[in-house]
Structures are given as C-alpha cells and as structure tokens.
Design a protein that fits this description.
Four copies of one chain form a homotetramer. Chain A is an alpha/beta fold and about 350 residues long. Chain A folds into two domains: about 1-125, 3-Layer(aba) Sandwich (Rossmann fold); about 150-315, 2-Layer Sandwich (Dihydrodipicolinate Reductase, domain 2), CATH 3.30.360.10. Chain A is about 30% helix and about 25% strand. The first copy, chain A, has a seven-stranded mixed sheet. In chain A, strands 2-1-3-4-6-5 form a six-stranded parallel sheet, sandwiched between helices. The two termini of chain A are about 35 Å apart. In chain A, about 60% of the residues are buried. The mean pLDDT of chain A is about 100. The interface between B and D is medium-sized, with 19 and 20 residues.
Chain lengths: ~350, ~350, ~350, ~350
C-alpha cells in the first residue's frame, strides 16, 4: 500500500510515521508541511532518524500526491481536509482524516460547533471508531478518524447505552488528557513552566468533542443523548483517562453491567477489560493502540462509574488511523500495531 | 503561643514547620517522631536548615509536652489522636488534629468507614473548616482539621446547597490530587517511575473523604446528602482540583448562582472567586492558603459545574490548621499565612 | 522605599512582585509591559490576585516613573536597560538591572558575546553578587544583578580560587537548570511535550554566562581564568544545580578545602553549607534565596567537585535583586526574604 | 530460541518482556520472582496484558529452568548471578547477566567496589557492549551486559581514546539519569514527591560504574585510565545523558575528532551520530536501542565535549541484552529491536 501524509509535522503526523515505520505493508510515499517544505523529516523529528530519508513536500502538489497514493492520511487543522477531499478522491486515493471535518453525519452540527461552512457536504464518510463501525469502514473511501477524548468516552459508555442499562440523561464525562493532545503549536497553555505541577479544567460546557460523543451515543441509544463533558489538562505528555458517570436504571444488576462489557468487547484485541473494580492507568497503554476499561458500581447512589484509558496519540489518533487503514485494505487489523506499551 | 507537633516528619508536619517559621506569635516547643527520635529535624528535612535547631522527641513524653504547650498539632495516622486526646487536654493544651479521628459528629460513621473503634467518643470537637465553622472554632479545645479533598469540595458546593439551588441527589465530585497527598510513606503508588507520566483513579465509591463531605453538605442542607466522590492521582507534587457537578433546580438563574458564591465568600480573604466562567488552576494556589473557585453553567443540560483549587498541604492541611490556630487564640486569621503563591 | 519594575510580566518580574508583596518597606509604584499595557497584573498572573490591584503601564512614561521611584528594577531583554539607564538616573532613581547590560567591567566583552554595541559605557555599575561585592553595592546607583547560572557557579568556586587551592586551568562547570530559566516567551524548547521526560545540553562552549563567570573568578584569582561551562535543561520548573570540577593543587588537604568554604561563608545567612560529602538538592532551596553548597574530594584523581544549588528565579534573579535592594538602602539584608523553602 | 528470565519483576525484567514480545525468534519459557511467585506477570505489570499469560516461578527450580532454556537472562541484584552461574551452565543454558557480577576481568576490582567475595572467578565471561566486543560475544557462554551509565560513557569516549586524541588523565563524565535507573524497589530517593521538581547529584567519586568505564577505556587505550564520574538524578522516568569532557592533545584538529567517530560508528545501526555541534536528547531515544552521540570542540580551552544519550532501560539494559542475544545466536543484530523511539 502506498500511503501519504498531509501535515506530517504535527504530533499526529509524527506518530503516524513512527507506526508506519513498523508496518510491513505500508510504504510512505509523500509527506507534506507548508511551513517546513523542503526540510528532511528526520531534521524536524530526530527520533525518526534512521527510519525516513524523505523531505517534506507541499500540498500544492496534491493531485500528483493523490495519484501516487492508495490512501492519504490528513493531519491538518479542521477546515483543510474538506477543502482537499474531492481532489484526493478524484485522483483515486482514499482518505483517512484525523481532523473533525468528516466526523458529523449532520454537517449543521459541524457548522454550529466549528463555526465554519462545510464545503464537502455530500461526502460519504464513515466514522472511524473501528470497534463500533468496522463493517462500514471496510468499504469506505473516506474515514473520519475520531477525536481522542471521544474514542475513550464512546468506548466506555456504548455498552451501557446500547443495552439500555443507564438513564442517558445523567451521563457525565470528566476527562483528563496529557499535553500532547494540544499539539505542537506554541501556546502559553502548553508552555512547560506554566503546565508542570499544575492541573486545571478547560472548555467546560463548550468543548467540540461533546457533539461527537453525543452523536455516537445517540446512535447507540436510537434516541438523542445529551451529556456533560469536561476536559482537563494533566502535566504529562501522553494519555487520556475518561471518568464516566451515569445513574443505573432501577433493578439493573452488577452482573448485567459486566455482561454488557464482556459481550461487546471480549473478542476485541485492542480493548483490554480491567473488569468490575478495575483501575486502568494511562501509562499501561502508552505507545500502544489499547483502550483499557474498568467499571465500578456505587450501590449507595445507584451510579455506575466507567474508567477508560488510552494513549491519545495512538488509539486516540494515529494508531486507530492505522487500524482503520488495515480494515479498509483487508489486512489483519493488528498489522503494525502489536508493539507492547512502554512502561515505566 | 507555645505550640508542639506530634508526628512532625510527615509532609503535614513539615509544612506546619514551614508556616510556623514565619508566624510571629507561635513558638515551636516540641516536635516528635517515633521512628526518628533524636534526629535533628533539619537533617530529616534539609530545606528547614537555618530555621529549626530542634531535635525530634518522642510521644512517650506526651504529658510533659502537653504541659509545656498551649496547643498541640497532631499529624499522626488516624487512630493515634483519639488515643492521645484526653491526656493532652488533661495537661492543659488544646488540640488541632490533622487526621480523621475527631471529624465526625456521629462516631458510628467514623467506625464504619475507618473500621476502628472510637475511643474518645465524648470529645467536644469542632470541625475546622474555618470559613464555615469560624464561630465554634473560637471557643474550641479540639479542632478537627478537615481533609484535603473535603476542604476543596465543601467550599465549592456549600453556597449552592445552602441556598437550595441544586438537586442534592445529583451531586458528583470528581477530584484530582498531587502525589504529596499520599504522604511520605513509601508505596508503589508514590514511586516516581510508576507515577510520572501516569494518570489514574483510585478509591472509587469508597474513599474515606466521602462521608466527611456528606456530613458538611448535609448540615448545610439540613437534610441528608449523599454524593459520588472519585479521587484521582495527578503526576505533580502539590495541588487539588475538585470538579463538582449538580443539576440546577428548575428556574434557577445564573445570577442566583453568582449571588450564592459572592454573598458567602466575597469577604473571605482566603477564598478568591474566579467568577462565572473562571478556571482556577492549582498552581495559582501553590504554597498558599487560598482556595480559588470558579463556576460554569451548562444551559444545554441544566447543570452547574464548580471548580475549586487548593494546595492540599496548605489550605488542605497545615495552612488551615494555622488559620484555625489564629482563630482559636484570637489573632488575625491571616497571621503567618500571607505569603503569595509560588508561580511558576 | 518606592520601587518600580520595567518588564513586569516576565517570570523575573512576577517573582519580584511575589517577594515584594511580603517586603515591609517596599511599595510597588509602577509596573510596565509593552505588550500588555493597560491589563491588570492579577489578570496576567492570577496567583497575585489579592496582592496587587495595579494595571500595567508603559515605558513610554519612563521619566515620570523614574521621578516617582527610589529604585527601578529592570526585567527586560538585554539591550533595553542600557538604553534606559541614563534617563532613569537623570530623574533620580537607582537601578537594579536583572539583565546582562551592566554586568561586564569591560564592555568589549559584552559586545563580543552579546553582539550588540554598548550604549552606556561610562555607567558606574557594581556587580550584584551580594556576598562577594556587598561593600560596593552599598553605595551603588546601578547594580547589575548576576545571571542565574553565574550566581551558582561563582559562589561554588570562589573560595577555592581565592585561596589558591586549585589549578584554575582545569575548571569545568556542568550546570543544569529548570525550564523557567528560559522565561515566559514561547519556544519549542519550552514546549511541554518536548521537554517533559527529556534531558539535553545546549549552548556548549558558547553560552553567554561563561564570560560572566570568568570575570568574577578572574577577579578572585587576580589573573585571567578561562573555564568550560555547559548548561543543560532539566524537566522541572525551578532550580539550578552547578557541578563544578577542578584539580587540586599538589599537597592541598581536605581540611584546607573545608576551611576555604567555612571561612568565607559561615556567617552568610543565605549560604547554607552542606559540608564535605554533602549533596545539595535544588528542591531544598525552592522559593527561597538560599544557595546550598556541598563539596567532595576524589583522592584517586586529585579533583575537588563542588555542588551548588539555588532557585534560579530567587537567588538567581529576583531574590538576589531584593537582597541588593536591602543592601543599597541600608536595611537588614534579609528583609522580605526569610520565608522557608517550599518542600516537597 | 527458548529464553527465561530470572528476576522478571524488576524494570529490567519487564523491559525484556516488552522487547521479547516483539521478537520473532525468541520464546519466553520461564520467568521468576521470589517475592511474587505464583502471580501472573500481567497482574504485576498490566501493560503486558495480552502478551503474556505466564505465572511467575521460583529460582528454586533453576536446574529445570536451565535445562528447558537456550539462554537465561538474569535481572537480579548483584551477587545472585555469580551464585547461580555454574548451575545454569551445567544444565546447558547460556547466560546474559544484566547485573555487575561478570563485568570485571579482574574480580579483585569487583570485590573492592562491590564489597563482596566473588564466587565464580573462573567464569569465561565476555563484556557485552555489543559494538565494541561483538566478535567475542558471538562465541560467549556468559555475557556480562554493561551498566546503563557505562554504555553511554564508553560509547562516547572510546573513539577519542582509541585514536589517542585526548589526554586520558583529563577525562570527566558528568552523567544524568532518569529515575527508572534506580529500579522498582521503594526508597525515599525514588519517592515521587521528593523527586519531582528536584535535581541532585549522588555517588560522587564513589559510584560503582566508575571502574567499569575505566576498564573499557583502559583496554581501548592499552594503558590505565582513571576518570571522574558523577551521576545525577533527573525528574523523569527514562533516559541517560552523559556529558564527557577531555583535553585534546596538542595539534589535534576538529576533523580528526570527526573522523574518529565516523570511522568507528558510521556502520553501526544502533549508533546515530548527531555530528560535531549536535545535541542528542534522551527523548529521541526513548523506548529504542539507539545511542545518539554529538560532540563539540571548545577552541578557547582546547577541550572536546561529547554528549551521548540512551534509554537506560533499552540500550542501557534490556535492549542491549537482546542485541547480545541476537549476536550469540547468529541472528540479525536488529531482530526485535527496530521499533522507532516514542516521541513526544
């Protein structure tokens, strides 16, 4: 498979390159960066020295790049993918977009939360949360890779919603992310001295991953679900933990909750169930495509608490993108993704 | 004032010594440690070099220590304070206990959550959350200094509960703490390589600060309140952020929420209101006795989200203990506690 | 004393404000920032909320600011202080410059290393390493506050150089600094995800603190000293450790080395000697104006290794500036600087 | 190849398991732990969940374990390997020891620095710094895997020593390590709250890696070399940077220095040369078996400064052990070790 990456100098692009270096069937053809065109990628990211000799190209050559690729990963800020999408398709390549442009079935939701007109409304995109949409992904030409928070949250809550075990109006997702989720762009929020030994929330009641989680849960529920989602910044590089709360429906037993998780995920390689009473830790997933899930039931209050941990750059971005690549091209889903997490 | 500290080699004890070094009216008489008796405190904690020449004594001399002190801070694991309490009182000293022994009005609650028989049931202790119980503290002989999580949580929620603005059955406190909250005792959980670049929850649905928060909120509500409380471990030394959720009662306006906070706290020196839409950060309180509070209203879901940040070792322990000391002895409450937070 | 700060929004400026908030005899009159003129300082730095109500002014008002101040702290990038110096003096204020402009007796050295013409060559500036130049500082109108690395290095090596115990041609300073030393300006080097869990050197054989260390050691030696100085970036906010190596002259005994340190520093409040075999740790000085020094002798190789730890923003910048302020105005040198370090 | 690990629950053992999980020709037969015998390894290290179903055995079964293995990795504290060595050899397995027992040709040096009698003096062990001793490793039955600091230091200095470009009496190695180097055993030094935001030296003039570095450099020099080695603790999990200083011999040109590095290492896959003026960063090697090396020449002082970065648990321990395994068994040296570093 010939693959190319638009926007290869962000953390998502670099992580794709790290994973693709170990993928036996993917060959990286073109990588682009508008700000560092002409620079060798190993100079931008010395950790990739010895793996890639390529020099960064420009999106100005998009038609040629697309013609020379079976699939194109897009690691650009939202707005750019939908502008480039039709050109890519016209030249015969498939698309895996790691941004938000193709994530919403209803583009009006996109336009409302991203405050941008959607310019590729008729795109036949599939939402790329692999475990839940695998069948559609197989035949897709455009895969919208989910956001990092959303991957952790949706995987945590879907078994409960789908099996109608909780009151969907009581869902709260309190999520915590490492700083790499904010990308490589400079900002005071990502400035080391501000962030080390610090913890705070941001985007309360307004974060753009909210409607994405709601879309997936609504589909699982076959009715509209509205949640509270609160992201926080953790002084570490990688990792997301989502702590999800909901009220159990009257009479739901702990065993029913267990069964919901095991029946949905027991066969999934990339989901490791820590079980009832389990405590997933972000570090156990670091560098890997795993999502570790544990759950707790508070009999005093009647609530279930689900804990879900991923590496935001892998299962939350580049890893799931490679997983989708494998599904789209009929490979074993694990290809290139079997390396064990890095601990400690 | 002559003060002594039982259990001076834990982080709480060390923090008391740091603060008392700058307190113009307190003189440290005796400090104890059963494991390091005879060792100079400046050898155990070199940062205190130049401030203290004292050597650690033993609790075996408790009667003499009490007789030689106006007040005794107790920084021991739970169980020890209630065993020593009567002896201290008998020899004429007051008590500020930084552990859990005296925190519960109903000692049965203590016995249930701490699985230990209470041996000083008739103690006339006052709960030392200064802003809420100031009047009782003035005349107290035993002050039960609150836990770190509880201080942040109770201060965040009391204005809403007291003013009957929220549905008390919907309260969820998702709290995050730096590792110093786990103390100086060695454990794998506090082992650097395990904890750095890691984030996880612990004690879900069973943490002992739960009944303490419930006791204070129930008093504010004049009815029994039951909550979900979930603590998490943040890879940093100091700081707690509590993210508190509750459903607003129908018809409650944002302005009513604002008024609840301002009317209760506007005159409080140690509470800094970041206001509606504000984002307190733990680092802004580091080393200080402040509790910074901000709140958000999600009109989509009808919930209020309150964010509350403290330094767990100061307002969450030693600082509030000194604040209580000042109240008990009729000093300006701020005495020895006015140094600005350490940032960055 | 009426004091003002030019460039109050950098970390050095913020740290001056933190310390001056606890200084009983200094009143902050004016604070400036060209990029955030008109903004309240407590909005730029919320940790200062409750301490300062001032709004940031502009250097365009320098004559009025100087006329209204007894002393002006300058926390601007190099080049700006020497441009403003004469104006300040003309309006009757003294200067404490925290940048490099006034640090070199021979302005040609400044021009060579900073690649900038010096525009205030006849300034009668005193080098503000308080413990070594205290007498001159008393009568100074311009004090050039030393760099952070240089403070740690010069204090470590001067006793050995002054007492002629080492071969000055063998001096190597291997220094390590927290990231706050790089300031609040955004850069990839200070970007959290790049810096956390990372360690590297920079500025090998070319860092601008080299000639500053050499100037002070040459004065102590009464002959020209040339050293190797290598700075490194530590994934932490504050703190510098300098590891200094030199070959002992033949026949020098360990006791002579000890005597050199004790005779020079035993009476210095802000220098804490950890002694021969001692291991200063940056954290023991955090938030304080202390410099902790320990030394080791390797009998196998005949070398002495001196370890010196400071908080780069305090003894390495704002704290020493306040110490100099106290000396210049005849106050107790410790005024406003006695708060204990923040540990853990 | 059938491999077993004695002492599998330390960080070195866990890292071996991580790497061997991706090694196509090695099968893990037995893993032991005396303190956690009978516990599944995936319970001790949840990050390995999905890779290993094995339960920890005991060294009491050493003869059977050895008989069932082609090679045994030993990840035990020093003293244990030499006690077990002969038994292992007798039962037909080879040994790769990650401790110090077999590292010294002259066991008297071992006995002096480790203060322990050597009980396997006639062992024919080969020092396992692969790039330097590859030919001997091919035929070895016992490989003594080097220490982490020593790997970084020896690789940095050997080209200069071997080519006689420096004055060997002037060598100083100032090294910095992440906390994982101290292992999983609990200690105050590795306690999170003590170590985060802290930097300090330890083991000055007495660290046990000193004689190991000296042994290798003396062999390269064909004369006895004595150095200063100073280790420091960096608040991060993984990574070592060695900053090495030496005086160049008169007349040595920068090009000669360059040639020494390129001629020795240009063909080495696991050594990446950052070149003259280059700045290796530990993070660029994280999780990989690379050693990145850069060097600088200070014409003012006539010194060369070499910077060398590794992941202490990989090239400094488990990775190099697997590299040696590959060499011993005639496999491609890179087998199982090609995964790219984890960045950021």
């Amino acid at each position: 498979m010939k693959v190319s990456i638009l926007g290869a100098t962000g953390y998502t692009g670099a992580e794709l390159l790290r994973l693709l270096a170990g993928h036996p069937q993917a060959e990286v053809m073109h990588i682009t960066s508008e700000s560092q065109t002409g620079v060798p990628i190993a100079k931008v990211y010395p950790h990739l020295g010895g793996y890639y000799t390529q020099t960064l190209g420009s999106m100005q050559d998009l038609p040629a790049i697309a013609a020379d690729s079976d699939v194109i990963f897009i690691g650009l800020p939202h707005g750019h993918a939908m502008a480039a999408g039709q050109t890519i398709l016209n030249h015969g390549a498939k698309i895996i977009d790691l941004g938000a442009d193709y994530r919403f079935k209803n583009t009006a939701v996109y336009e409302k939360w991203y405050k941008l007109e959607h310019v590729h409304k008729d795109a036949a995109a599939v939402y790329g949360l692999t475990e839940l949409y695998r069948e559609q992904i197989k035949g897709a030409t455009i895969v919208a890779n989910p956001g990092c928070y959303t991957t952790a949250s949706i995987l945590a809550l879907t078994p409960l919603v789908k099996n109608e075990l909780i009151d969907n109006s009581t869902i709260i997702v309190d999520a915590k992310s490492g700083v790499s989720g904010a990308g490589r762009g400079l900002s005071l929020t990502s400035h080391f001295s501000e962030t080390t030994e610090n913890f705070q929330a941001y985007g309360v009641a307004g974060h753009r991953h909210t409607p994405e989680i709601e879309q997936a849960l609504s589909e699982a529920a076959s009715s509209e679900v509205m949640i509270n989602f609160t992201p926080h910044l953790v002084p570490m590089g990688r990792g997301i933990l989502a702590t999800c709360y909901a009220r159990l429906k009257p009479g739901v037993s702990p065993e029913q909750v267990d069964a919901a998780f095991y029946s949905m995920y027991a066969q999934e390689y990339f989901i490791r169930l820590a079980g009832r009473g389990g405590y997933p830790a972000t570090k156990n997933t670091r560098g890997s495509n795993f999502c570790d899930i544990g759950w707790h039931i508070d009999v005093r209050t009647g609530r279930v608490i689900v804990l879900s941990a991923i590496d935001n750059l892998v299962k939350g971005a580049a890893g799931q993108a490679v997983q989708n690549l494998n599904v789209m091209f009929g490979l074993d889903e694990k290809t290139g993704l079997t390396q064990a997490p890095l601990y400690p």
